[in-house]
Design goal:
8% helix, monooxygenase activity, mainly beta, iron, three-stranded antiparallel beta sheet, 2 iron, 2 sulfur cluster binding, binds FE2/S2 (inorganic) cluster, four-stranded antiparallel beta sheet
Length: 154
């Protein structure tokens, strides 16, 4: 009967061999392939300050980067320019900064007036309406909206 059952010493020896085999955290002989790192599970953003939903438009600017009473020219996702003006704390409006006279890019408003650097046409800062030519019409509005701390195309 003792010949069929493994002896205690044989069992312990077999267990030691098994535990020292690669993959069991035992001895490292340096010949085993490296074990790839385990990536942590992916997490969805949980911040309430996220600029928009994953399917929503990307932000074009942070509200805080647009001077109150002034404005800023930024790039749209398609590469075109966008003039953002901020007449009040949470009121941000967008315009195509291309002057309707001959196409120069107008700067942000100063003291409520946007003045074209090429031929001095003037536009109302908050509305983009024509104040003085040679342009014959105002700036073209580009719909934008404030989402949290960011401005997105509407
Ligand atoms: S291009 Fe703006 S006034 Fe001429």
């Amino acid at each position: 009967m003792d010949e069929v059952r493994p002896r205690r010493r044989q069992v312990l020896h077999g267990l030691a061999v098994t535990l020292s085999a690669p993959g069991w955290g035992g001895c490292d002989t340096g010949t085993e392939p490296p074990v790839p790192p385990v990536s942590p599970p992916r997490r969805e953003p949980t911040s309430s300050s996220a600029p928009s939903s994953p399917a929503g438009p990307p932000p074009v600017a942070a509200v805080a980067d647009i001077p109150l009473g002034g404005g800023r020219v930024v790039d749209r996702p398609d590469g075109r320019k966008l003039l953002l003006v901020r007449p009040a704390e949470a009121d941000v409006r967008g315009f195509d900064p291309t002057c309707p006279h001959q196409g120069c890019t107008v700067p942000p408003p100063v003291d409520g007036v946007i003045t074209c650097p090429c031929h001095a046409s003037q536009f109302d800062g908050p509305t983009g309406a024509l104040r003085r030519g040679p342009a014959t019409r105002g700036l073209t509005a580009v719909p934008v909206k404030v989402e949290g701390e960011h401005v997105v195309l509407a």
